[in-house]
Amino acid sequence: MASFTSVKSGDWNDPTVWGNLAGGEYPSKTTDEDTVTISSGHTVTYNIDNSSAGTNHRLGTISIRGTFNVDTTQSTYCWMRGRFYFIQYLAGFVCGSYASPLSSAYTFQVEYDLLNNNDYEWLDYNENSCRVDLHGAYKTQKEYLSATASSAQADITFTTIPSDWAVGDRLVILSSSETGTARYTENEEVEIQSISSNTATLTGNLTYSHSAGTMVMNMTRNIRFFATDPTKQTGPLYHNVQMTSENIELLNIGSTYVFRSGASNNEPWKLEGASISNAIGAITFLDSNDGINFIDCNFYGFAGGGIKGNNRNGIANFEGCLFAGITGSVIDNSGNRAPKWTFTNCVLACSSSNGVYSGLFDLYMNNCYFYGLNGYAMYKRYNPVFLQNCFFGEREDGSSQTNASASLRSYNAMYYMNDCKFNDATLISTHESDRRGLMYWSSNHNQVYGDFNVYDGNGTIMLTNDATVYRTTAPSIKMNCERDTSPTPHKIQFKVEASTSYTITIYGKRADTGWTHNPKATLSGCGIFDKTEWTTNDTNWNAVTLTGTTTRAGIIEVIITHYDNGGFFYVDDISIV
């Protein structure tokens, strides 16, 4: 082990850069775990392979005051038993640029071979405003199977020709099962042995069958950071840096926090076209006020959950990102602040739990797909959810792949939904005793295929004029109000224009105990008022129909009130024209 400090800018393997030491030494040439300091104002270009195929000596920590620059004219390899450590304002880690990324003909790989848990963070800082500016070659993010790929076969075909996919690329074929844990246990990691046109031959036969239309994610990039032993917990990937990088791969991350960005310095960062997989931890933004941007990234195989945030009012933006194979909820904010997270053109699929869970955060989602989840597509608490053109239980090709449980669930959260489609049975529920959940269908074209439920407490459904709520099969229950011990009202509200015709049929029946009061349905607003009482003294469904035409614009409200602790009601045959 030796220590090196740069005395000027230049190439890594130039002995004069390190002061013309005896024997023409440079870091990792002849000794193991050399420590390096790149001095302020110096740019040192890394141009060697120190792996077992090269000099065969690992590096220790590289402390950066100037710039660590990667040679883009050849393939390089950096084998480490240390970390990249930024110790001066505007210190940099650079490979290529947006205009001139590292060519697909070359690779830059960083291997972390650590001895103990918590040895090092992969990229760490001791000074704010440091730069990580890495630019790999573009790689097509995903393809889709054009035909069923059966178990025990090695060839798969794609709907288009992935011209930049190559021999050795690591792929993930998502599960196409709709049964139990197979929704996520039948995701399959494979490797390309050869590829011709739109057909790839894999290095081994498939274990599971995958239907046509199934997504295939490419996880290989030519800038690659990975751990030799993914069980070694190494801490956050990077911390308080300016991150503007594209097309990089992060693999086998033994970290509680895959990302830890920003505490007080508010450094914005962007990661585009990245592949992030096989992590002990979660994609975590801890103490972050930053502007965080993920664009066209693939996330797969996180054992500690998916996207998590904590303690700050940060803004996170995800565009075109794919999330699959997550153990735990894909999106989970557990902090005590209220960040704003936006997801556009994203897929949350084939994971062991919920799509979205919990959270004091405002959530905006547009054109997103939820399928193959072994839990709720969304269980949202408190802060509002805005959903536009989202698909639940449907894949990108329009085929069904349902989720295991109710699509949406509310705990004091308000949902605003426009142009959404729900393919699952047991669709939407406001749940938890004495909690109020509001589902607000903010425009038309929301399509429902299955049951539509409201459980417990004050559940309110609001629909606008011409809102469509329809199924391909008759529901067993549409709005279910149960287990009340007091005359708690249950509501459905419709925002309508003047001269709107409506027909609403409400059903009720007795449960385990008898009734001491008759249930009552009240319709009011927009110049109309109708109060109807009816008796349900047996276990058969009894119906009442409310019909008419509004005389003015506004909100009409259906309120169902019942007593004791055993009644069941549902509202069906809604028609608002």
Provide structural commentary.
The protein has 577 residues and is mostly beta strands. Among the domains are: 3-135; 142-218, Beta Barrel (Elongation Factor Tu (Ef-tu), domain 3), CATH 2.40.30; 427-577, Sandwich (Jelly Rolls), CATH 2.60.120.680. 1% of the residues lie in helices and 43% in strands. The protein is built from 1 helix and 52 strands. The strands form 6 sheets. The protein has a 19-stranded mixed beta sheet, with no helix packed on it. A hairpin with a 2-residue loop joins strand 48 and strand 49 (528-533). The chain is elongated.
Give the CA-CA distance, first to last residue: 80 Å
Q: What structural class is derived from the secondary structure elements?
A: mainly beta
CATH topology of the domain at 427-577: Jelly Rolls
What CATH architecture of the domain at 427-577 do you see?
Sandwich
Major beta-sheet overview: 19 strands, mixed
Supply the CATH superfamily name of the domain at 427-577.
Answer: GOLD domain
Give the number of DSSP strands. 52
Share in helix: under 10%
Please report the first level of CATH classification, the CATH class of the domain at 427-577.
Mainly Beta
